[in-house]
Design goal:
Layout: H1 19-37, H2 49-55, H3 60-79, E1 85-90, E2 95-101, E3 111-116, H4 138-141, H5 143-148, E4 152-156, H6 175-192, E5 195-201, H7 204-214, E6 223-227, E7 258-263, H8 276-282, E8 288-293, H9 320-331
Parallel strand pairs: 3-4, 3-5, 5-6, 6-7, 7-8
Antiparallel strand pairs: 1-2, 2-4
């Protein structure tokens, strides 16, 4: 009687499995297939699993076990593919690309987070859905932590006509930008049959607040989370859009559940935590919570624009898991 083998694949996002196992398990399984069928396996992902099993004389539970194991091995190949499925959505005169990872259990109770990074918003996603730029952004770093909470994620890149040095520029506050995000929200809702929340950080909060204030129907998000909101602009700057803040948007039109996060040690000139009350008092949300986070590693980089980076308290370094868990509590109806 052959020995019993149990293979456990732990969920890890973005779509990756343990690296050491890939080097050992895959060759062993492929050699076994070659020995049983005479057909060598030379590429990943492993396809045509039913055809492979048909050529192996198996029946009953042994066949089912082999199918399950080979299917798991096929996922190893998918795991090597990258950071999520790259999805393209037509927008106002261009196309927006996003890296999509589905929720753990799609359906009415599922939640997908539409992630809007700060800075220029241009991630330069590669064909595997991995960000070439803004890798240190808080939301980009937190994707695995959101996955551990069971959430799907959609990391949104700047549209094709806003991929220069300044990225989205002043387009973040435009009605057309909200409509673009609405198309993505409607697509995600149709895919998952669940809820979609928009999450923005730093300058990305302008995009998130824009969508929350202006969208309705199936294009509207189910809730909004703003972290390190951009609340103080530079009036009179050479680039007019640098003066934009979330206060330029019709915040009173936001009636969705709102979670507003800031860091007590944030010294970024664009997101002074003392201005957070201004957002809370302007929105019309019946369910809202404002949270001032503390802790994290010591930061000695000084104040000003240098403090607006992901490694500063502005970007919550080493606090990703804690914050993702707090977001999950709020999204599911509790307190952060």
């Amino acid at each position: 009687m052959p020995p019993t083998y149990r293979c456990h694949w732990a969920r890890s996002l973005p779509i990756r499995c343990g690296g050491p196992a890939i080097c050992v398990v895959s060759p062993a399984v492929f050699n076994a297939i070659h020995a049983a069928t005479g057909t060598p396996v030379r590429s990943l992902p492993l396809k045509n699993l039913q055809m492979v099993l048909h050529r192996i004389k198996m029946t009953g539970s042994l066949r089912q076990a082999a199918l399950a194991f080979l299917f798991a091995t096929a996922l190893v190949g998918e795991a090597l593919a990258g950071c999520g499925e790259v999805v393209s959505v037509p927008t106002d005169g261009s196309t927006m690309r996003l890296a999509y990872i589905p929720p753990a259990k799609p359906g009415a109770d599922s939640v997908t987070l539409l992630l809007l990074a700060g800075g220029p918003g241009y991630l330069n996603l590669d064909d595997n859905g991995c960000a070439r730029l803004l890798k240190g952004n808080f939301l980009v770093r937190s994707i695995q932590d959101f996955g551990r909470e069971g959430f799907g994620t959609a990391l949104v890149d700047a549209p094709g006509n806003y991929q220069g040095e300044d990225g989205l520029e002043g387009y973040r506050a435009a009605r057309a930008h909200a409509d673009d995000l609405g198309k993505i929200i409607a697509m995600l809702r149709a895919r998952t049959q669940g809820k979609v929340w928009v999450v923005g950080t730093s300058r990305g909060t302008i995009s998130a607040a824009n969508a929350a204030a202006r969208l309705s129907g199936t294009a509207a998000p189910d809730g909004v989370i703003l972290t390190s909101a951009l609340m103080s602009g530079q009036v009179g700057a050479k680039k007019i859009w640098v003066a934009q803040t979330v206060f330029d948007l019709p915040l009173a039109d936001i009636r969705l559940p709102l979670l507003l996060l800031g860091h007590a040690a944030d010294t970024c000139t664009r997101s002074p935590p003392g201005l957070m009350d201004g957002i809370s008092t302007k929105v019309s949300s019946t369910r809202k919570q404002q949270v001032l986070i503390s802790g994290g590693p010591d930061y000695r980089g000084g104040a000003g624009l240098a403090a607006c980076e992901g490694k500063a308290p502005h970007g919550y370094p080493e606090q990703e898991a804690e914050i993702a868990a707090g977001m999950a509590r709020f999204i599911r109806g509790g307190r952060y």
